[in-house]
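Researcher: Here's the sequence for the chain we discussed earlier.
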Amino acid sequence: MGILNSIFDHFEKAEFSISPNKKLKTLSRDFQKAFGLSLVFYKGNIIAEDTLTLAALNNKSSATIFTKSTEELKIRASMKVGNVEELFLKTFGVTVQIKNTDSTKLIDNKITLGDAVRNSN
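Model: Thanks. This is the structure I predict for it:
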């Protein structure tokens, strides 16, 4: 079943795009619709206000950010959770955590988004 799930994940919800001008609450809602998982944004060690845009959160971050990315980030169900979280940090300079649907439990960084959804049921 693992190989079939991997192939399915390449086509299911083919790409989810993240653009820096969207509000965090919109990105989180759209991510949950696409993958059935929660996307939580952080400003330092605190959960960020969901009324900020991704670009505004980047500007308020305490970390030194060398990129002011305007590019869109594309995410697939076949990507590992840890890789997705790392892409957010490298592309936009923000920390995110991917959690289960009701945001009560962190998802293992070593599994794919598709596997995370299948294992959370």
